[in-house]
Design a protein that fits this description.
The protein is mainly α and 235 residues long. The chain has one domain. The protein is 47% helix and 4% strand. It has a three-stranded antiparallel β-sheet with strand order 1-3-2, with helices on one face. A hairpin with a 4-residue loop joins strand 2 and strand 3. Helix 1 crosses helix 2 and helix 3 packs across helix 4. The longest helix has 29 residues. The protein is globular.
């Protein structure tokens, strides 16, 4: 069930997780037979992959480097071909509905589809949306573990955090707004670089190495870890 109490069918799960419908059915069968599904989901959902491609692949960009409005159906470049390139057998309607609910696309009066956001934030929060969040937490934790490992044989990964103990009131709100703009610009530049250097014929089906590379940015406002520990010490 999702947050609205609706059942999650194979198509909706495939859209949110990036797994094909066939694989979803296989995992469900494994769960029914053994009581626990095998792992196989990372943080990259189909909508996120689709928007990344739409904003970085020259096939879908105009002369100024912005994503083109795409006809819903037809040969490439079209929305249906974009969906097929990243989602395989996942139905076009399921992907379109998910992106519309998230406010990431709009359908124009001439029948084309326009991208509104470069990044996908689920429109409803259910266990599949949580999967993407867990993926982000995993990469942060893995980076910390790598940097703390004294026996590692490769260089440390960049891990920085800028903070203030004394910022107050309106200055905090100003920083939140300013940092959002700066962080978005930074991540979009990283995304463009990655898109420009990925193999032109790569698809989600080709991503079988089990390796990813990327940079994450987040904003935090709240108590320090030391303050939380002091308020709720471990018995």
């Amino acid at each position: 069930m999702d947050a609205s109490g609706r059942p999650l069918n194979a198509s909706r799960i495939a859209v949110k997780t990036g797994i094909s419908r066939k694989e979803v059915r296989r995992i469900r069968e494994l769960k029914n037979s053994s009581g626990r599904p095998r792992s196989g989901v990372d943080g990259s959902a189909v909508p996120a992959q689709l928007l990344h491609l739409w904003y970085t692949d020259p096939t879908y960009l105009d002369s100024s480097g912005r994503p083109c409005p795409l006809p819903l159906l037809g040969p490439s470049p079209s929305f249906s071909e974009l969906v097929r390139s990243v989602a395989g057998d996942v139905p076009l309607g399921a992907v379109r509905a998910e992106l519309k609910q998230a406010g990431a696309i709009e359908e124009l009066g001439d029948g084309t589809v326009q991208a509104l956001k470069q990044y996908y934030v689920p429109g409803d929060f259910d266990e599949k949306a949580l999967t993407a969040i867990v993926g982000s937490l995993f990469t942060l934790a893995a980076t910390t573990e790598h940097n703390a490992n004294r026996e590692r044989t490769s260089p440390g990964y960049v891990q920085r955090f800028a903070y203030s103990h004394s910022l107050q009131g309106e200055a905090m709100d100003q920083f939140r707004r300013w940092s959002r703009i700066q962080a978005t610009d930074f991540i979009e530049s990283m995304d463009r670089w990655l898109g420009a250097n990925e193999p032109a014929d790569s698809t989600m089906a080709d991503m079988s190495s089990g390796q990813i590379v990327g940079v994450g940015v987040y904003f935090y406002q709240g108590p320090t870890a030391e303050a939380l520990i002091a308020d709720d010490p471990v018995p």
